[in-house]
Amino acid sequence: MKKLSILFALVFFASTLPGCLGMVEGMRSRRLLAEEHEYLRDEETGILKGAEPFRIDGADTRKAVLLIHGFSGTPYDMRGLGEHLAAHGYTVYAPLLKGNGTSARDLAATGWRDWLESAETAYGELSAKYETVYVVGHSMGGDLAIKLAAEHETAGVVLLAPCIFYKGGYGPIPKEFAVRWLTYFMATDYIVKEMRNQTCEPAAADGRPTYRLYPITALRSFVELMGRTRAALPGVSEPVLVIQSMDDDLVSDDGPAYVLEHVSSTDRRAVWVDCAKHLVTLDGSKDEVYRETLEFVEGH
Q1: How many domains does the structure of the chain reveal?
Q2: Which of 109, 289, 120, 99 is nearest to 210 (CA)?
Q3: What does the pLDDT read at residue 229?
Q4: DSSP-assigned letter for residue 239
Q5: Which of 81, 153, 154, 246 is the most buried (most CB within 10 A)?
Q6: SS3 225
Q7: Domain region containing 203
């Protein structure tokens, strides 16, 4: 009887708390959606200022690097790394994944298949011209890089804080489970994104174009992609480099070891950096991230 009471209490908690939180989030999200029209953007494309895709042609006519940003991120997050690689002669291309860089409403209308299609299209454009293409992905972009490597003969993949597992949860409830299932009980379509303390380095994310909201349907699709990414790891036989911060506040510290254990690659290693949270390409660790990525490309 006691066990049934505890089970009932957990079910009640799981079904009522998200609803209460959702009402609060709903009020905040409606205000933030209304403010989106004030963002600086290109009048023709609707893309936020600084979020544009970019391509820089390098002197090397054989090698190119595909740079894939993360969930609700933009090519802005990859620009510094791209410019560093281009300065050493490599062509770089950072596409804008579908639904990102415009409006949270656009992201709400997309899912992991759309984001993968954007990455596939960009990879196809590079592989049609260059005999050697590396794929570098940040966060969810790392997940997409794994999917590409499992399905194509890439020259190698660099995974920057890939989202293999979320870090933490809500009490005894894992975050991945909560996003996938408990969000159905929330009385809102969006979750407000915490914008404070995104980086260890003060002002490292200043000017970064991003959404203030996470669409719940897109978050659920992201969680589905995480599961599919883990399942795809054995299909990756290319060289793999994983770079993650010891202070990452979003993804689990177990991710790099899980990747190295499950890929088929014999050339695989992980590098841990400090002075950074999840945005390793922008934070205090960025120079080390740039250097490690360049050495990987040069050495393979």
Answers
A1: 1
A2: 99
A3: 98
A4: -
A5: 81
A6: helix
A7: 2-299
Question: With left for phi above 0 and alpha for psi between -120 and 50, is residue 271 left, alpha or beta?
Answer: beta
Q: Which of 249, 219, 193 is nearest to 71 (CA)?
A: 219
Q: Collect all residues with Cβ–Cβ distance below 8 Å to 160 and sequence separation of at least 6.
A: 136, 137, 138, 139, 141, 142, 243, 244, 280, 281, 289, 293
Q: How far apart are CA 190 and CA 177, in angstroms?
A: 17
| pLDDT value of residue 38 | 75
Q: Are 284 and 207 in contact (CB under 8 A)?
A: no
**Residue pair 149/136 in contact by the 8 Å Cβ criterion:** no
Type of residue numbered 173: I
Residue 286: per-residue pLDDT: 97
Q: Which residue has the higher pLDDT, 223 or 3?
A: 223
87-145 per-position pLDDT tens digit = 999 999 999 999 999 999 999 999 999 999 999 999 999 999 999 999 999 999 999 99
| DSSP notation for 244-258 | EETT-SSB-TTHHHH
Here the tokens at position 194 are 């915490």
